[in-house]
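Deviation from plan, reported transparently: carboxymethyl coenzyme *A complex.
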Amino acid sequence: MSATASTGGGSVTITLDGSNKTTSMKLMEGTVGPAVFDIRKLYDQLGVFTYDPGYGSTASCESKITYIDGDVGELLYRGYPIEQLAEQSTFLEVAHLLLNGELADASSQKEFDLGIMRHTMLHEQLRRFFDGFRRDAHPMAVMCGVIGALSAFYHDSLDINDPEHRRISAFRLIAKVPTIAAWAYKYSIGQPFIYPRNDLGYVDNFLYMMNAVPAEPYTVPPVLSKAMERWFILHADHEQNASSSTVRLAGSSGANPFACIAAGVASLWGPAHGGANEAVLKMLADIGDVKNIPQFLSEVKDKNNHTRLMGFGHRVYKNYDPRAKIMSQSAHEVLKELGIKGDPLLDLAMELERIALSDDYFVSRKLYPNVDFYSGIILKAMGLPVSMFTVLFAVARTTGWISQWKEMIEDPSQRIGRPRQIYTGAGRRDFVPMGKR
Ligand code: CMC
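Because the crystal trials were delayed, the predicted structure below was used instead.
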């Protein structure tokens, strides 16, 4: 089978050679970024599918939330550059922006912040869920379980067709996920759970629940607060990545938002995605010393070895990830403000970056540091355990996930996500009874 394509008038026409089957596909233009062919009628009219494992050339939805230009290394939330948001806004301002499309004025923002903070407590019975886990459980396992369990507690906001239910579920998720994350941590170290304090604000309350103990007063150090605010903003959304697409796919069947976000957490956990921040720290610890970098990189470049340079490479960025630039700056600032001089991990990471960026293997494949390369160094300096790194990513990304989910539910063209396949298994054949095999 072969096909002939011709373009003109903002569309492409494809004719299957030797048949009278033809289809015309409209070219859809976004505000910025590559145009897309609308292939929705392809199967009906030509009887063929497209093949795109990993979705490298597929736009799965129309979205107004986040834009990435991977060639120049640009990231915009609702049109605003990530550099400006990281420098000038708060995480809850970004949450309002992602969810509602616009920056809020002072009084709407205050109302939004209060609205979120009023939902920080968990149903008291949810406490008992934590006891069911082993103390040495990975906190991401606890996150998957407890976030999924929220749907068993908040029945009054599960009607996805009701805009008020959608709003309350979004607020509940953004507010409660930090409490679940902090309690997963406290459980793992055997300390009592610390209840939220809404007067502290979103980021400080999270750090308070993580670090305070009932035995003595705790004040959140401003340096930690500022660094975490920025860290959360950088991780808030990233268009149709694996976990956001998972949230959308789960939600496309009409599943409730708590279940969908639990699905997103599961997808984030993998080392190719959010699990990379934890993997970077493990990798740096394994390399151990600058002198071992060449040997490590030769393992990475060996086709028969599955080692990857974690925190490097990205499906979309073929240039420096703008979040990595801010993370690297932030790592230096945090270490300086915490009075940590000459952190060996940072020195090792910088040297690894320098050598990799001058190595043809990485240059020719356009592999640059991504957000995860420096993020763990900041978290480690802030005293957070490595096993919590991906959990923090999930806390920040919950805002993006629920914004993507809400946009999908409110899109009139939304249908259940149902990819097709090219089948290469056995053709139809008759069952062979056991005695004749
Ligand atoms: N180290 C060594 N080689 C790499 C790496 C890496 N980190 N990333 C890609 N490559 C090579 C890969 O082997 C392939 O080479 P070849 O053409 O010779 O077969 C080429 O570069 C293209 O790689 P790919 O696997 O087709 O690229 P992808 O778009 O499917 O994967 C990625 C993107 C992020 C999964 C991958 O770059 C990777 O595994 N990076 C390390 C994990 C990581 O840091 N993940 C965090 C991503 S950013 C935050 C997030 O999304 O959560």
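The mean pLDDT is 95. We consider this an acceptable substitute for the interim report.
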